[in-house]
Amino acid sequence: MRKASWFNVVSVALGLAFLYLPIVILVIYSFNASRLVGIWGGWSTRWYAALVNDQGMLDSARISLSIAALSATAATVLGTLGAIALVRGGAFRTRMLFSGMIYAPLVMPEVITGLSLLLLFVALDVDRGFWTIAVAHTTLTMGFVAVVVQARLLDFDTGLEEAAMDLGCPPLRTFFTVTLPLIAPAIVSGWMLAFTLSLDDLVIASFTTGPGATTLPIRIYSEVRLGVKPEINAVCTIMIGLVAVAVVGASLLAKRRMASSE
Amino acid sequence: MTVARNSRKTPNARGRRLVILVPYVWLAVFFLVPFLIVLKISLSQTAIAQPPYTPVLDLAGGMAGLREFIDGLSLGNYVLLASDPIYLISYARSVSIAVLSTALLLLIGYPLAYGMARAPRSWQAILFMLVVLPFWTSFLIRIYAWVNILQRDGLFNQMLLALRIVDEPPAWLATDTAIYIGIVYSYLPFMALPIYATLEKLPESLLEAAADLGCPRWMAFWLVTLPLSLPGVIAGCLLCFIPIVGEFVIPDLLGGSEAMMIGQTLWVEFFSNRDWPAASAVAVVLLGLLVVPIVIYQHRQMRQLEGGRLEGDH
Fold this sequence. Notes:
- The complex is a heterodimer of chains A (262) and B (314).
- Chain A is 78% helix and 0% strand.
- Chain A is mainly α and 262 residues long.
- Chain A has a domain at 55-227: MetI-like (MetI-like fold), CATH 1.10.3720.
- In chain A, helix 2 packs across helix 11 (230-261), helix 3 packs antiparallel against helix 8 and helix 6 packs across helix 8.
- In chain A, 43% of the residues are buried.
- The two termini of chain B are 26 Å apart.
- Chain B is mainly alpha-helical and 314 residues long.
- Chain B is globular, with a radius of gyration of 26 Å.
- The longest helix of chain B has 41 residues, at 2-42.
- Chain B has one domain (82-313): MetI-like (MetI-like fold), CATH 1.10.3720.
- In chain B, helix 4 (85-118) packs across helix 8 and helix 6 crosses helix 8 (176-201).
- Chains A and B meet through helix 1, helix 3, helix 4, helix 5 and helix 6 of A and helix 1, helix 4, helix 5, helix 6 and helix 8 of B.
């Protein structure tokens, strides 16, 4: 039986408090009636009401969500293929280069990735905006999907696939009827991860954006640079709320599925 | 059976090649080639033109065009980087901030991971989710949350004043302290989770054996737990150190304006000075600084992959 020592309890509690307090404070301040951060003017939803009429902010939110959905979907397809290539592809020439290109974007400083992609788009002479950001985000996030899916691929029993193949199931059908359902949870979490990363990205989007494609982080950033604004607190609270609902919902769903399969 | 297998072989091999080729080509075009372009432009000169650099490679010019292009390249930007102390200071500052904050992260992240791994099994999934959850919320928002707290009339100073720790509210924003707080705050999950992953797999029987043989708990930690968790520690440190060196958002929103990290320098060269070749040279040197840790990181990822496969095959 494990006993929870004081040291362990305290370090976990402090760590979690450190992670959550700033977010909690931000959420509370978004309901502050006063414009000044230092003064509590009572509870109010006026900043949320102001948001509804902020057309620029709404446009940015729409652009960001579209880019995130598009690039997450593309990154999920590419990343899943990449993971399969790494785990099941066997030895092929330049495999080191391939794995390097999959893993490197995970840690590469965003300023480098952003600058290099922009220079590519300039060299190709394409109009920058929605599509260039989507391509940049796909490239950035497919490595994350690949890592998540790869972990799942390494985890499960290849005997199931072999059994299907031995019974005469063609490879493609084996993939869709056996492999895909088994790695589906990883693919879903990979997609969610890619979606969040895209929604979150400021640096790469700033480099690859063009006229008319101001994403939510770019807009938030340009407002935040001028100081704290209560409207921004409200935007952030909405985003935090959406993410919390999505993540908790997904994990509850996963739990129920696991419980029913047992 | 054999016949059936053979007849499948060709489409199978073709399918496999396609599975590799699609992500491969995508990454080559959008990840590898752009670096070569950065390298090329770092050897160019600034020009008031569109695009704002010369020479521009004109493939229509044939061999003569190519020669003219190569003659136009110069190492001028790198000479500038080496001669202007602004750049050297920027690089040194970035690396030293990254080293110190990685050490701080380890100091805070290890006990957190250790506490999680020692928690009752039923709690672990919940604790894991609680540590991951902030990572899902926007990075920018989390940094911005600290602007709220650390500004002059923010909550932190109000608390210090109320507790009579200070008489005058000190400035926290635009200081290095704020940068360290922001970095440690945003990167904590990246440090804690890899360590947790190794600690969680650590068999308890090893520690029980050590205790049975009369080894004190702190010594068992030093001799058993710490060495076995080293892969997680190294993974966590690399996952933090590499991106921190090139960090832009945190020093820009929380730090002061007198000293810049290299990510900011690159940003200013690009967006304010519109000096694309200089920005490219800054990026190339930054990549040169980070190439060793990145290769180590990739190597470890690959080894983990091979290790996983061996385990799966047994």
